[in-house]
Structure prediction request, 330 residues.
Amino acid sequence: METEGAVDVWSTVLAREPVHHYQHCQEIQAIAVASDSAAIATCSGYQIRLESSDEKGYWRRTYQFELQKLVSYLQLVPGAAVNSGENQLLVAAAEDTVYLLNPDTEPKVLHSIYGNNVTCLDVSINQVACGVKSFGWIMSHGNKVQVYCLQTSQPLATLGNSAGDFTCVNLKDSPPYLAVTGNKDRKVRVYDLRTSKEVISLYGHQLGVSSVQMDDWKIVSGGEEGLVCVWEQRMGTKLWEMHSRHPVRHLHFGAHTLVTANIPDEKCPRGASIMDDDLTAHRRHRGIIYVYDFSIDKSAPVLPICRSTYDEDVGYSYNIALSMPYDQIK
Prediction:
């Protein structure tokens, strides 16, 4: 995906060349990839484009939407096109409005509050969660997360009341009736959707939280300062952390792996051009993807600090640190 609007779709099996390519006229603002089908959605300006692959592997444009506002967030509804004959549903946030997009019908408004822009978005099989800026000048009306039912378009819950903007929310990966959020106030919060109450609050980032995900027992959060934290949600304690140069824009973990994408705020170094000889400045402004594999042989040099014994005074390995280090042995 390029700033010129070009989109390349790659196969994780055949990764030598893109399996599909298409072009937008302007810079791409958001992209969404289906986890349960061969479909991808991108938005550029006021245009949303849905591309999918048929049973023979041929990619084509499935549908194209035109909205009246600039799109900032885009999500594909999981499970919406698993069975043949069903349309792939999309949810798009454009400024202060959230739309449900179905190729067979006109765009449907799920949420709209004039002047209160949407700050984050996530979608599960039957629910939508969106962060919304403060409702007004009154201090009691802080920033919130609104949860809606996809089938009925009715509001289900209103979460939080924070002075900082909600910058990320994870609904589809969270356990039933729970949602995890990240905020500019540097806190990670978990809410119970049945009561709309906060059940967990974690504080460990120096800057705003930019990405979150949780499962039955752990929470992983990434921050603007480049810190990735793994939390034990039942005890509310930090288990592990890793620091990188650039902010953590995306993260996703599975049973044994963790993938993070660190993207700099400033992608072009000031005063440097492609013709300059100093490549160090350019490397500092490159984003990087980290893949952590926790299933490999414990003797491999992945986390030396985690293999320290009580015979050692301290455990240390560059930018890796345990939140509860070993006691000093005297």
In short: The mean pLDDT is 84. Residues 124 and 283 are 37 Å apart (CA to CA).
